[in-house]
Amino acid sequence: MVIANIHNYLDSDAKTKVKFNFTNLNITSFEVKGVQISKKTANTFETVIPPKGVATIEIKTSVPFNSYSSELYFEAISDRESDAVKINLPVIPIGVKSVNYLNAVIQATETEKTIDFNIPQGVNLKTVNLSLALSPTIATTLLNSLDGLVDYPYGCVEQTMSRFLPALIAASTMKKLDVKLNSATLEKLPDVIAKGLERLYDFQNKNGGWGWWKNDALNPYMTAYVMYGLKMANDLGYNVDNNVYNQGFKALSTLLNEKNIDRVTAAYIAYVYSLADSNAVKNPAFVKLTDELMADSLNAYATSLLGLVNHKLGDKKTETVILNRLMAMANEDQNFISWGRDKYYTWQQDKVQTTAFALKFLIAVDPNSPVLVKAVKTLIREQKGKGWHSTQQTATAIFALTDYLELTNELDPEFTVEVIINGKSFKKVSFEKDKLTSPDALISLNSSNFNFIHGKNTIKLVKKGKGTLYAGSDVELYYPDLSFVKENSFNVSKEVYKLKEVVSGNTIVYRKTQFDKAKSGEMLLIKLKVKTNRTDDQYMMVEDMLPAGFELVKDDHLYNIEGESSHTGYWPGYWNYFYADKEIRDSKITFFVTYAPQEMEFSYIIRAQAPGLYSSAPVYAGLMYYPEIRGYGKPNPL
Questions:
Q1: pLDDT, tens digit, for every residue of 344-374?
Q2: Confidence (pTM)
Q3: Is the N or the C terminus of the chain less surrounded, counting Cβ atoms within 10 Å?
Q4: Torsion (CA) 595, 601, 602, 604 in degrees, nearest 10
C-alpha cells in the first residue's frame, strides 16, 4: 500500500489533475478519500479539493522483483498552483542475502586470470548483482576500501575510528606521493572526521577510556585504538579536543600496569604508548611492560607490535632479534606469506590483521625484503570485495598497504584489460600514468544489462601491456529460503504478539495477545530469540528488517508490558538492557552484544500503519568481525 496526501492550502477550491507513476511496482487498484473524483484511469484522476482540504490516495501495489529500487512519482496540477514529488525507495527481495567475494591480482609478468562464481538453481536471477572494480595500483584499491569504510552503516567506537583514521592516513600518503585521484570519499573526509571525533568524544567514559559502545565498560584495546587514532589525527593537523586526549592518555598510561589482559592487547598498548609519549623510555611502567613482553613467548601479532615499539625507540639490536622471531613463525610458500591463524575468531589471532602488522614491521626494518610483495599478495587475496571481512580488518590492512604504496610508488602503469564474462567480451579498460582511474573500471551488472546463468559463471581478465592489475568483485544474490544456507551457527527465532491496552488502577499497561492480523494503529511486540552452543563469542550483531506498512515505536521503554522486564517504564537515558547498544534505521533495527551468552532475547514494538499483506525478511545473527559465523530465522508474514 502506498498512501499520498494532497493538501490545498489555498482559500478557494482547487480543481486538480492528479497523476502517479511507479517503477518496479505494479499498481493493482487505488481509492481516493476526502473528495469526489472524476475521469479516473489506472493512474490518474481529477477532483476538486476544498479550501484547506486534503485528498488522500491509497494505492494497492504488488512487488515483482526487478531491481533493488523503485521510483515513486506524484504530480498534482491545478489552475493556480501545482506540485510534484519523486521518491526512490529500496526494494528488498524476500529471502536470505548472500555475498560471494572474488579477488585476483595479475602480476606484471602475467597476462590473464579467470574467476569463477556459482549461482545455485532456484535463485531468482533478477536478484543477482555483480560489482567489479579494476585498478592498476594499490592506491585506487585503497580508495575503494575507504569507500566501504566511510559508507559502513554502523558506528560503535571501533567502527567510528576505522572510518576516518585509514582515510586520513591514505589521503596523507597520496598527497605526499602527489597521486591525483578523484574520490567521493576524499571529498567527504572533513565531514567524516568532524562527526567521527564528535562521536568518540561522546563515547568516552568517566575513566577516560572507551568501550565498544557508549554503555560498555572501559576496554583496553578500544582505549588504545582510539588513542592511536587521536594521536594520528593530531599529527596530521586536525584539531583534537585537548581535554579528551589528556583524559585518554591517562587511561592509556594506567593500562601499562594492567595485569588481566592478553599479551596481544598489552603489546598494542605498548605500541600506542610509544607513539603518544616521546619520553616513553623514562616511564618505568612502560619499560617493565616491554621487558616482560620481550621475555614472553608471544604470537606473531604481539611480536610484530613489539618490533614496531623497538623500531620507534631506535633499538636496532632488539628489533633484529624480534624480526628473526617473526620470520620463524611465518607461513610461506612460493607466492604468499602470512602470519596468524585461519578460522580463529578473535582479533588477537586474526590472519589479516597479524599479516598487516607484520608487513608494517618488515617495511620499517627491512624495506628491501623479497617477502614484502608476498605479504601484500596475501592481503589482496584475503580482500572481500571493496574491503576485508570487517571494518577492523579493513582498517588494519589499509595501515600496512599505505606504507607499501609509499615505499614502492607503483604509479607508472601502461596497459589495457579486457573483461570477458561468460565468454562474452563486455568491456575494455585502459590505464596509464596520468590515468590511474577510469569510470569504466567500476563495472556493475544485474539482470537489466546482463544475462547471468544458473551454475558456473566466469569472469576472465586479459591484460596487455606493462603493470599490475588488481581486481576486486562481489556477487550479491538472494536465496529463496533457508534450505540454501549451509552456515547456521545460531538458532534464531521470532515471536509476534499483539498488544492490548488495559487500564490498571491509575495507569495503563499492555497485555500480550495472540497475533493473527493487525488493524492500522495497533501495536505488535516482536521478540527475537538467539541460542547457541558456542562459547566466548564477542561482538555480535542481531539484525531484523522492518516489514513495510509498519513503523517502529522508538520510545518502547515507556511502555509497561505485562511479563516483560525490558519494558517497565524506565526513564529516557537509563540503560537496563543486557546488550551493549541498538541502532534504528528506516528499514531495520540492529542490536549489538559485546560478550554473547548462549541464550539471548531482544524485543521491540512496531505500530501498524498502511493496510496490506507484508512479509518480513529472515532475522540475522552473526559476529561483527567474522560474519561467516552466523544464523538466520524463518521469515514471518504480517
A1: 667 788 899 999 999 999 999 999 999 998 9
A2: 0.70
A3: N
A4: -170
